[in-house]
Structure formats: structure tokens, C-alpha cells
């Protein structure tokens, strides 16, 4: 059990814990906007930590760069998708509140 | 005129270079034919980036605040993840987690009964888009809408205490 | 069976299960968070499987998923907004 192996496993378990927390939050939180918050631990902590673990395990090189790019992509796209989804939910609530019948989307 | 040409060349060249480097790193070992294909597609990507720059004129305001907020991000991430875990444990302890949104009448637009109301805040001189992205990256806040300098944010948990990221951005909460 | 494959086997039902469940209930826009999280979970499972089975080609699948899953979510959000905007503005775009 070398140090890199131990570090990789530690990062792996942290990343998996964050992902499982996200799933639990999505399943258990009672309100729709609360469930929107469940995305953040997965995209900001879970997948980047997982990619870091895999990169540590792979050692320096092209494979590690690829994994880190995947982690960075997920971390950057996470907040953007969350905002877009939040906006759609707010718009749907507004339309439902004003009582207009929603036709099929254009 | 020269300034515009320079900006165009910098954008196209910069983005093409970045995309080509990504292509080399991520996708392939380089044979000359693959390099040509990757290079031409990278140039196409650079042209697309230039089109976006002309349409959107992106500028970054308030770099120092954004840097401070970025530095505050890791601590806030861990703290608010812990908060989320506590909220999930509480929800699990309460039992009966199912809450299918009622298809009929919500009490008011923007939420249904029992949902927390949405707080509004105004960051000072920072770029609202990047500030919103940094705020949404933390589990405790989700930005729902951006109107000028005003962000409509949904908060999880304690409303009275702004997070470290929010304080670093200089966000205030009117009324 | 190594630690990576074990993590993938744990993550597949317990990560994707709640996402699928939530994606089947509620108003259309309220199913979107579940859909987005399912995409993120898929990326994680692909990466872990790639390492666990020693097949580096699965990392390319994870890369493509990491790019396309948010794009798909944006498409769905645009689709949902299209109907509302057409109602409000009287003929969107």
C-alpha cells in the first residue's frame, strides 16, 4: 500500500460519499427547490474528487490530464445547468400561478 | 480598426490553440492527417468563439472580489455540504419524504406551500453572471434569476447568515 | 473486484436509482434536476468502470457524456421555456 494508493482511495471514498449525499438529498428533501441544491455536491465535489483520485492513481501523463479535464468540465457546467433548471422551475411556477393552460412546448 | 482586427485575431488564435491542445491531449496520438483534421476543426471553433464574443461582448468586472470569492469557495463547499447532510438527515428522520408537487394550484407563484421563499440580493460592482455561477457552485445557494445587478437566490438552511462566498462578493440583501 | 469496481457497483443503483425515481414524478420542470444528476452519476460510473475493468477507452465515453449531458439538459430547459414564452409574448421567436 503505497502513499499514492492510499491517497487515491481516500479521494475515491470522499468523492463517492459526496455523490451518495447528492442522491440522498434528491430522494429525501421535501421541496422542489431544495432538491435543486442536490446537484451542487455532485458537480462541485463528487466528480472532481473522483477525477482527482483517478488521476493520482494513473500518475502523471496524458491520462491524468484527460481525467482532470473531465473533472473541470463537470465543475464548470454544474452551476450553469443548475441556474438554467432553476429558471425553468421558476418560470413554470409563474405560469402555473397565473393560471394559464400550458400548451405543448414550441 | 486595428484594435478590432487585433481582438478578432487574438480570440480566434487563442481559442483555436486551446482547442487544438485539448484535441491532442484528449483524443489522439498525432498522425499528420489527424492533426490536420483536428487543427481545422479547432479553427472552426475559434471562429465560433469570435462570433460569440461579438454577440455578447463579455467583460469581467470586479476581479478582486471574484478572486476573493473563488478563494472562499473550498471552505464554503465543505461547510455547506455538511449543512446539506444535516438537512437530509433531518428530512429522513421526519419520515414520509415523498412530496410530489401538486399539479393543481400553488399558493403563489414562485413556490408552493412549505417551500422556502426566494431571497433577493444585490452584489456591488462585480460581474453578476460570474458571481451567480460562484454562488450556485455552493450547495447552500441556487441562483434562479439574474436581473441587472440583482440575483434571485434560493437558500438552503439558515437565511440570516450569508456564506463566505456571498460575503466575499460583497452581496447585500435589501429588505 | 477492486475498490474502483466496488464503488461503481455501489454508485449504480444507489446513485441512479433516486434520480430515475424523481425523474418520473412531478411537473416537467421539476424532473430536470433528477435528469441532470443522472448525467453526472453516469460520468462517475463510466470513470470508475474504466479504471476497475482496466479499459481506458471508457474514459472517452465519460468525456463525451460530460460534454453532452449538460447540453441535453439545456435543450430540455429551452424546450420547456419555448411553450411558456410563446404563450406570453404571442409568438416567441
TrEMBL record, chain A:
It comes from the Bacteria. InterPro entries: PhaG_MnhG_YufB. Keywords: Membrane, Transmembrane, Transmembrane helix. One of its GO terms (molecular function) is antiporter activity. One of its GO terms (biological process) is inorganic cation transmembrane transport. This is Monovalent cation/proton antiporter, MnhG/PhaG subunit. It holds the Pfam family PhaG_MnhG_YufB.
TrEMBL record, chain B:
Keywords: Membrane, Transmembrane, Transmembrane helix. InterPro entries: Cation_antiport_E (IPR002758). One of its GO terms (molecular function) is monoatomic cation transmembrane transporter activity. It comes from the Bacteria. GO terms for cellular component: membrane. Pfam families: MNHE (PF01899). Signal peptide: none annotated. The keyword Membrane applies. The chain crosses the membrane at residues 5-27, 33-52. Residues 94-116 are annotated as: Disordered. This is Multisubunit Na+/H+ antiporter, MnhE subunit.
Automatic annotation (TrEMBL), chain C:
It comes from Actinacidiphila paucisporea. Its main location: membrane. GO terms for molecular function: monoatomic ion transmembrane transporter activity. It is found in: Cell membrane. GO terms for cellular component: plasma membrane. This is Multisubunit Na+/H+ antiporter, MnhF subunit. Keywords: Cell membrane, Membrane, Transmembrane, Transmembrane helix. Pfam families: MrpF_PhaF (PF04066). The chain crosses the membrane at residues 32-50. It is a multi-pass membrane protein. The keyword Membrane applies.
